[in-house]
Amino acid sequence: MKIAVAVKVVADDQDIAVAGDRSLDYSKAKPVISTYDKNAIEAAAQLAAATGGVADVISAAAADYDAKTKKDILSRGVEELKVATGLPETADSYATAQALKGLCEGYDLIVTGEGSADFYAGQVNVQLAAALGYPVINEVTGIEAADGKVIVKRTLDSEVQTVEVPLPAVVSVSPAIVEARIPGMRDILKAGKKPSSAADVAVETKVSYDEILAPVAADRKNQIFDDVEAFAAAVAEALK
């Protein structure tokens, strides 16, 4: 089985500064793998190992990644990295899916995370499936291969669904599917020898952004509660 896992590289939110006008300063934020995509990479790598197949990473970005980012991606059980470049920094889900579409040829299964750590639209999986004409299923918490299909599990509030999906297909996995690995030094050294490629693509965006601002900070209410019941009632009211 040939598996491609779609990965987004984002700015590390711990290093994003908020200015007085609520604008965001990314100048000191290092590029990192989107948190949810680490679980997707691990799920794809484990499925490839179980089937004697191969898992690669496909990605869409404004420009090719630096050597450190490439090593981080390729040290997680995948064999190759393919990047579609030339996207706007604020590319929407449609543009991202169109860019990824050109990297999906020859793969039986496309795996994605449930959303990105920055915009978290959760739409690339369905947009990519629509572009490819493949079936898609999301919120997957378990996956195994069968003859010409994958059998996936979806853990819902009151039940666990088991669904058979014919290949080729797009599957979006929940972070609960598997814990992401922490690459060892040997994995990182091997990653430096694995192939990676980048090529510019021309894509159309459907959504534009006038500005991106941090939310307005709410003033503290400085409420003091005399008992637990009053505190619990206040919390319940705030959550409505």
How would you portray this structure in words?
The structure is a single chain. The protein has helices spanning 35-51, 67-74, 93-101, 124-132, 185-191, 228-238, and strands at 2-7, 9-11, 17-18, 24-25, 31-33, 54-60, 81-85, 109-113, 136-140, 142-146, 149-155, 160-166, 169-173, 196-200. The mean pLDDT is 93. The N and C termini lie far apart (47 Å). Strands 9-13-8-1-6-7-14 form a seven-stranded parallel beta sheet, with helices on both faces. A three-stranded antiparallel beta sheet has the order 10-11-12. It has six helices and 14 strands.
Summarize the structure.
With 240 residues, the protein is of the alpha/beta class. It is built from 6 helices and 14 strands.
